[in-house]
């Protein structure tokens, strides 16, 4: 693994904010000022290919990156905010219902977050 890939993996594993490539880029710059945005994209796609990170794609928002530790996501339909949800591992239960050998699953719940809810309540 290259130094940059190591740094990027570390940034993602230490972040709870589901950073975008651009946010990762800014953090990487602090460790390696020579880094360019293309470095980030190349390494993200390599790390993703190796199964070392997760990618969260939501319509209308840039891809976000996350650690691989088992957890699920609650996503606000308005602002795209992502909150981690710990539901426990449903693999066995789902597998029993579906009758297939599941490799993984990615549960995503859509919501309107409290902030956006407030905004829409205040809207005229
Ligand atoms: Zn929101
Ligand atoms: Zn997450």
UniProtKB/TrEMBL annotation:
Any GO MF annotation of the entry: transcription cis-regulatory region binding
A UniProt-annotated Pfam family: FUR
Keywords noted in UniProt: DNA-binding, Iron, Metal-binding, Repressor, Transcription, Transcription regulation, Zinc
Cofactor: record remark: Binds 1 Mn(2+) or Fe(2+) ion per subunit.
Any Gene Ontology biological process: negative regulation of DNA-templated transcription
Family (UniProt): Belongs to the Fur family.
Protein name per its UniProtKB record: Fur family transcriptional regulator, peroxide stress response regulator
Organism: Treponema porcinum
């Amino acid at each position: 693994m290259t130094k940059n890939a190591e740094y990027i993996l570390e940034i993602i594993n230490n972040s709870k904010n589901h950073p975008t490539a651009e946010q990762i880029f800014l953090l990487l710059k602090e460790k390696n000022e020579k880094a360019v945005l293309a470095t980030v994209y190349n390494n993200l796609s390599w790390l993703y290919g190796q199964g070392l990170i997760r990618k969260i794609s939501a319509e209308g928002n840039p891809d976000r990156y996350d650690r691989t530790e088992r957890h699920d996501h609650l996503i606000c339909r308005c602002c795209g905010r992502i909150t981690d949800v710990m539901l426990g591992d449903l693999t066995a239960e789902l597998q029993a219902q579906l009758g297939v050998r599941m490799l993984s699953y990615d549960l995503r719940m859509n919501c309107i977050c409290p902030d956006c809810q407030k905004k829409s309540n205040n809207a005229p």
